[in-house]
Amino acid sequence: MKRLLILSLFLLVAGAGLVAFFCFADKMTFEQAASADKVGFWYGLLHGLIIVLSFVGSFLSDDIAIYAISNSGVWYDFGFVMGVLIAIRGPSIELSVTTYRTKYK
Predict the structure, then answer these.
(1) How many Å separate Cα 94 from the centre of its chain?
(2) CA-wise closest residue to 85 among 53, 40, 57, 49
(3) Whole-model pTM?
(4) Which residues lie across from 39 on neighbouring strands?
(5) What integer is the mean pLDDT of 16-23?
């Protein structure tokens, strides 16, 4: 059971990594952003989830940005923060619950 969980987690992370590789936040000028379609909550969530990959990629290429400047405002920001929290804090929350259950049974 534990092997199946680890394998499924690995496949999920690998799949998300491949999707994230092609979905880095956009690079555009402020003039282009003024006339472009605004991205909302779901793009903010995606960009928050891939922040680690975007951060590393931004060192390797000038074409990769962490944050989309052509966004809808509060909803994009909310999605971005939620994505960052899930990406960074998600695994540690699960580990703390598991530790508590096994320790006090």
Answers:
(1) 18
(2) 49
(3) 0.58
(4) 71
(5) 58
Tokens (6 digits) for 86:
């899930």
Burial, 48: exposed, middle or buried (Cβ in 10 Å; 0-12, 13-18, 19+)? buried
User: CB-hemisphere CA count at 13 Å for 97?
Assistant: 6
More confident residue, 103 or 11: 11
CA-based angle 25:35:20, to the nearest 5?
A: 15
Q: Which residues make beta-bridge pairs with 53?
A: none
Q: Token pair 């472009």 is at which residue? A: 36
**Domain ranges, residue 52:** 2-103
Task: Estimate to the nearest angstrom the gap between the alpha carbon of 46 and the chain centroid.
Answer: 5
Q: CA 23, CA 11: separation in Å to the nearest integer?
A: 18
Whether the CB-CB separation of 30 and 42 falls below 8 Å is answered with no
Length of the chain: 105
Tally of domains within the chain = 1
How many whole angstroms separate alpha carbon 26 and alpha carbon 18? 17
